[in-house]
């Protein structure tokens, strides 16, 4: 299909004139600009909601957590441990520079992959640069369920006696 200069020669039916081609290009550009503006406006108007895990959550009944159990809750960055004195919860965030620690079932140790700190299941520092034990979090009984509240720190010897 050839373009016809419609200023010099009148167009015949079926020929694409320069004016028609420019009109089509302009309409397409306007359509794209409108679409882009609409997308940006809709994106701007929609709320920026950040979904985070709950800071207060149930971990089960005390009888479901036998003595010696270490529950690893990576989403809540928490360990729930049933030790000889009772059940306690502690943060799994390393007290050195904030890396996520990992529990090893084989030797019941908690290790930080970043700089090699090592903690026992009480959260006490066994080795490495961590300056203090893993932080204990509030855990309490509510309607027979153990509930952890990450917003509340408790002393290192805090346990729920069961
Ligand atoms: S952040 Fe855990 S040892 Fe450095």
In short:
The protein is α+β, with helices and mostly antiparallel strands. The protein has 1 helix and 12 strands, in the order E-E-H-E-E-E-E-E-E-E-E-E-E. It has one helix at 18-45, and strands spanning 3-4, 16-17, 56-60, 70-73, 78-83, 86-91, 102-104, 109-111, 118-119, 125-127, 136-142, 145-153.
Describe this structure in words.
The longest helix has 28 residues, at 18-45. This protein is 17% helix and 32% strand. The chain starts with a strand and ends in a 9-residue tail after the last strand. It is built from 1 helix and 12 strands, in the order ββαββββββββββ. It folds into 2 domains: 3-45; 56-153, Rieske [2Fe-2S] iron-sulphur domain (Rieske Iron-sulfur Protein, 3-layer Sandwich), CATH 2.102.10. The chain has one helix spanning 18-45, and strands spanning 3-4, 16-17, 56-60, 70-73, 78-83, 86-91, 102-104, 109-111, 118-119, 125-127, 136-142, 145-153. It is α+β, with helices and mostly antiparallel strands. Strands 3-12-11-6-5-4 form a 6-stranded antiparallel β-sheet, with no helix packed on it. Strands 7-8-9-10 form a 4-stranded antiparallel β-sheet, with no helix packed on it. It has a two-stranded parallel ribbon with strand order 1-2. Bound molecules: FE2/S2 (inorganic) cluster. FE2/S2 (inorganic) cluster is lined by residues 94, 96-97, 99, 112, 114-117, 128-130. FE2/S2 (inorganic) cluster (FES) binds at residues 94, 96-97, 99, 112, 114-117, 128-130.
